[in-house]
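Reference record
================
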Amino acid sequence: MWHPFIVALTLALVLAGCAAPEPLERRQGYVVDRSYAAPSHNSRVRHLVIHYTDIDEAESLAVLTGPHVSAHYVLPLPPQYHHGAPRIYQLVDEERRAWHAGASAWKSRTNINDTSIGIEIVNLGPDRPYAEVERLLERNAEAEVKIDWAPYPQGQIEALIALSRDIIERHGIHPTDVVAHSDIAPSRKVDPGPRFPWRELYEAGIGVWPEEDSVARWQTHFDMQPPTLATLQKALKTWGYPQQETGELDRETRAVLRAFQMRFRPADYRGNPDTESAAILWALLEKYRPHEMERLAEATTEPAT
């Protein structure tokens, strides 16, 4: 038979284990009282930024754990599994600011490192250095560009989908704020490149994609009356790109168009303004930012349904 003292002690230990955490936390030189909690707050994270590393796994981890650049997560290649689940490296706590975006802007925000979580996917990118890719794209705007881009294995994408869903749900990230590195820094970056499966991510509930019937309506409309370059620039800026409204097909505009086309029309990403790109852009605005369509009032009227 149990001794009453042992029973009482056991009960006390159990109750202590179930009790609420101690509200007082001693720190160096002061004590924090957590007795009160304010309900009026939300996550600082507003963006999810997708990158590729452009180097192999060992070098990627060496660079991203070095003194100059970092990311919150790294997806290895080939995909690695632990008890049947994909293993993903976490290098930086989500509450901390990783150094992955650099000089960047999206919608009304700049310095996207401040408000984002960065995912680096180990992928070798194009078959030549970025500087050469940039020269090819700039010099061959009117000709087909032959660049081979590394594929993304399905296992990597499945791991990315699981990770992204979790991040988006926990931080309440809007679909239009799931972005490519090339979206937020189009004059400097092209990752994750034209082979990245944005539509597959959208079908898994991540990010955005236009409705085909809406694209077709706008395509027919713009084939008859295309938007001016200034209006196209304004639409790109309205969608979120760091785009100036110059009315000129300058280097910045080509870079923004190239980023947009790599994501939504990867068959041709030479950075040329065309009615198909415009139709996709207007369809996206119509679906995700309809209140912003009024800012494009100088564009031709909305096509008939």
About this structure: The longest strand covers residues 47-52. The chain has a mean pLDDT of 90.
